[in-house]
C-alpha cells in the first residue's frame, strides 16, 4: 500500500490504491478542510503535491476548472477530494493561510 505523507507536520498513512488524498489525510489524522464534503465544489482541500504527482489519478476537467480558484495555484496543485493515490508514495503539502471559499 502506498504511503501518503502530509506536510508541514509529516503525518502519514498507508492507504489502498484508489484512496483520495482527502481520505488519506483523515487516515493520517490530519485536518484537511473539505467544506463541500468532497464533491469538487470548493477549493478548501487544495494541496501541493511534492512527490508522486504523476502517480495520482489524472484531474478531470471539473477539478481543473475548480483549481483555478485556489490560492497559490501551482502546476503541482490538486484537490484532495479528487486526486486518487496510485501505486507510488505521495507527499502532499497543505497550504497555510487559507482563505475560506
Ligand atoms: S472538498 Fe470541496 S473541492 Fe474538495
What does this structure look like?
- It is a single chain.
- This protein is an alpha+beta fold.
- The chain has one domain (3-93): Roll (Ubiquitin-like (UB roll)).
- The protein contains two helices and five strands; from the N terminus they run E-E-H-E-H-E-E.
- It has helices at residues 21-28, 61-67, and strands at residues 3-7, 11-14, 46-51, 77-79, 90-93.
- The protein has a five-stranded mixed beta sheet.
- Strand 1 and strand 2 form a beta hairpin.
- The mean pLDDT is 95.
- FE2/S2 (inorganic) cluster binds at residues 34-36, 38, 40-45, 79-81.
Any descriptors?
101 residues, alpha+beta, Ubiquitin-like (UB roll), 5-stranded mixed β-sheet, 15% helix, 22% strand, binds FE2/S2 (inorganic) cluster
Ordered list of secondary-structure elements with their pairings:
Blueprint: E1 3-7, E2 11-14, H1 21-28, E3 46-51, H2 61-67, E4 77-79, E5 90-93
Parallel strand pairs: 1-5
Antiparallel strand pairs: 1-2, 3-4, 3-5
CATH superfamily: Beta-grasp domain
Q: In CATH terms, what is the architecture?
A: Roll
Strand order of the largest sheet: 2-1-5-3-4
Number of helices: 2
Radius of gyration: 12 Å
Give the class-level CATH name. Alpha Beta
State the oligomer: single chain
First and last CA, distance: 33 Å
Sheet with the most strands, sense and barrel status: 5 strands, mixed
How would you describe the shape? globular
Distinct small molecules bound, one entry per kind: FE2/S2 (inorganic) cluster
Number of domains: 1
- Helix and strand element order: EEHEHEE
CATH topology: Ubiquitin-like (UB roll)
Helical percentage? 10-25%
Low-confidence stretches: none
Number of strands: 5
Amino acid at each position: 500500500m502506498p504511503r501518503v505523507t502530509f506536510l508541514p507536520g509529516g503525518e502519514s498513512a498507508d492507504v489502498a490504491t484508489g484512496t483520495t488524498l482527502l481520505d488519506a489525510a483523515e487516515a493520517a489524522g490530519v485536518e484537511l478542510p473539505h467544506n463541500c464534503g468532497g464533491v469538487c465544489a470548493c477549493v478548501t482541500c487544495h494541496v501541493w503535491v511534492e512527490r508522486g504527482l504523476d502517480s495520482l489519478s489524472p484531474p478531470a476537467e471539473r477539478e481543473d476548472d475548480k483549481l483555478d480558484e485556489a490560492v497559490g495555484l501551482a502546476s503541482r496543485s490538486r484537490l484532495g477530494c479528487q486526486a486518487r493515490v496510485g501505486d507510488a508514495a505521495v507527499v502532499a503539502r497543505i497550504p497555510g493561510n487559507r482563505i475560506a471559499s
